[in-house]
Amino acid sequence: MRILELSGDTGSTYLITHHLSAIWQTQGHHPTIIAPVSGRLPLRALARILTLSPRPHIIHAHLGHAAILGRMIAALFNIPLLVTLHGFQKARHYQKIRHFTAVSHAVKAHFVAQGIPDAAITVIHNGYPAAITQKPAMDIRAQLGITPDRILLGSVGTLSAVKQQHLMISAMPAILAAHPQALLLIAGTGDLRPALAAQIQSLNLQNHVRLLGFTDQLAPFYHALDLYLQTSREEGFCLPLLEAMACGVAVISTASGGPQEYIRDQHNGIILPAMDAECLARSTIELLSHPQQRQSLAAQAARDVQPLSWQHQAAQYETILQGLLP
Question: What dihedral do alpha carbons 301, 307, 310, 312 form, nearest 10°?
Fold first, then answer.
């Protein structure tokens, strides 16, 4: 099967297309990735698609502009199109498309409420790369000059308003009052970096919060943590949360949509009852003060998300793609 993967311009969808394509290649399929697709008429992506030979059997698109381009190419080549819905966007990009998957039931409900038929959307959760669960040789603490006595809190994500990293920073003074050795590592890039850096400066947290920027060493990052934090206002799914859980790290998350489908509060993680810094600080202090509870949550998390490897999720996508072929 020749699969054309079209991805929008977010980091997560780009990663998803690569994970799926790598697995499909090992199974004898022939995926082609074109990314990023941005703008209503992405001429560079269109030109590349038109020169593909032989033509794809099917198109799998991620995000709105990729879906628009996919719909155009599907009509031109008379081939099927599957679109994966990743977040809480408006449905206008997805008109005249018949077959969807969604990365969570929360995302599906969002689009059904906008008029996409329930039967047209199949939920397939995102996955994690199996290799990420293996403890890596790289020692992030040594690389960053962090002493063994520091308690590492961490988070991964675009530095943006929706991710609300300012809540983590605001929670740190209270956390440090109870656990002075705590250190918060925030990995990611984005427009809010200057504002977050200014917040760290204003709270005199330079020795307790680090903005690491982009990192492609996620496995060493997760395995070094004592606790993973996610403070998003909304999440279609949240790959880093799942990956941290798969690595056996205890997690705390806001009630933001997708994460509530794989985090069971007080069973394999913590879902905050309120989306504020005080609530985050209380829950963080509680878990840091009770290491046995934290370890129990982490172990249960790793067990519960084990079925969500990309190998398993790719097989679900493959079944749907095969079913759409003439």
Answer: 180
Rounded to whole angstroms, how far apart are CA atoms 172 and 177? 8
Q: How confident is the model at residue 72 (pLDDT cuts 50, 70, 90)?
A: very high
| Domain span holding position 241 | 130-307
Same domain flag for 169 and 20: no
Residue 138 confidence (pLDDT) above 80: yes
Token couple for 238: 């949240």
Are 276 and 255 contacting, i.e. CB atoms less than 8 angstroms apart?
Answer: no
Average pLDDT over residues 199-204: 98
* Average pLDDT of the residues of the chain: 95
* pTM for the whole structure: 0.94
Length of the chain: 326
* Torsion sign over Cα 259, 232, 272, 253: positive
Q: Are 101 and 164 in the same domain?
A: no
Quickly list DSSP for 62-128.
ESHHHHHHHHHHHHHHT--EEEEE-SS--GGGGTT---EEESSHHHHHHHHTTT--GGGEEE----B
**pLDDT tens column, 82-98:** 999 999 999 988 999 99
- Strands of the sheet containing 2-7, edge to edge, are 30-34, 2-7, 58-62, 81-85, 100-102, 121-123
Are 168 and 67 in a shared domain? no
Pair of tokens at residue 159 = 């530095």
Tokens of 277: 């810094």
User: What's the number of CA atoms in the CB half-sphere (13 Å) around residue 136?
Assistant: 17
Distance CA 135, CA 138 (A): 9
